[in-house]
Design brief:
alpha/beta; 9 helices; 257 residues; seven-stranded parallel sheet; Rossmann fold
């Protein structure tokens, strides 16, 4: 198989949650530019529709808004996608949230909010879309679930984001559990991003950019192509024999810390 075919996602149907900004937008744009039929989901309809319109200038993209912190919304979104598409080749569970507060003041509400979106939504949406994913599977080319974790789930972060780091470690392990449960028709892998330019990272990068760059073996902040590249690899024929993996995309920060 030629390299351009090996890494092709052309014609595949992909759903990217949290796809209107940050890492989700990087992945959605990469898929759209590579010829996939992309659906982006986010809680705010106007953000979702604006992103879909922007990416439609470069490829094929549709808006599918929803609040994925709720199980009923996960089911509704899955039903709506199913009404439009007979099969789903790639599900990217990227929607997530963070909460930072001092140890003595860290509220219970933080755990509820963060775990609902960062962990439970992965399970609920994947389960709701399993039949559509299985419908896309072909011999040697299974459907793909790509969960977006974090290097904060691989090593202890410096910031006081207790629910976030715990949720990302949970997302990594849920990835492995689902990889075994959904094989052989569906692969399930996770990407663990390090520092990228995003709304969630904006305040941290504003305060600590130089320190972060100095602590990164590759000496820089992640760029959109870095994230799009690993997602396309996992979604293409090149990644068809990979499942249950958690791939750090962080310039070597977590593995050399």
């Amino acid at each position: 198989m030629k390299p351009q075919q090996l890494f092709s996602v052309e014609g595949k149907v992909a759903l990217v949650t949290g796809g209107s900004r940050g890492i989700g937008l990087m992945i959605a744009r990469g898929f759209a530019e590579a010829g996939a039929r992309v659906y982006v989901s986010s809680r705010k309809r106007e953000d979702c529709e604006r992103t879909a319109a922007e990416l439609s200038k470069q490829g094929t993209c549709f808006s599918l808004p929803g609040d994925l912190s709720r199980e009923d919304e996960c089911r509704r979104l899955a039903d709506e996608l199913g009404a439009r598409e007979g099969a789903l080749h790639v599900l990217v569970n990227n929607a997530g949230t963070n909460w930072g507060a001092p140890y003595a003041e860290y509220p219970d509400s933080a755990w509820d909010k963060v775990l609902a979106l960062n962990v439970k939504a992965i399970f609920h949406l994947t389960r709701a879309l399993t039949a559509r994913l299985e419908a896309a599977a072909r011999p040697g080319d299974p459907a793909r679930v790509i969960n977006v974790g974090s290097i904060d789930g691989l090593s202890v972060p410096a910031l006081e984001t207790y629910a976030y780091s715990a949720s990302k470690a949970a997302a990594h392990h849920l990835t492995r559990v689902l990889a075994r449960r959904l094989a052989p028709k569906i692969t399930v892998n996770a990407i663990a991003p390090g520092p990228f330019e995003s709304k969630m990272m904006a305040a941290t990068l504003e305060r600590f950019r130089d320190v972060i760059v100095q602590g990164c073996p590759l000496g820089r902040i992640g760029e959109p192509d870095d994230m799009a590249g690993v997602a396309i690899y996992l979604a293409s024929r090149a990644g068809a024999y990979v499942t249950g993996a958690v791939i750090p995309v962080d310039g070597g920060i977590a593995t050399t810390r």
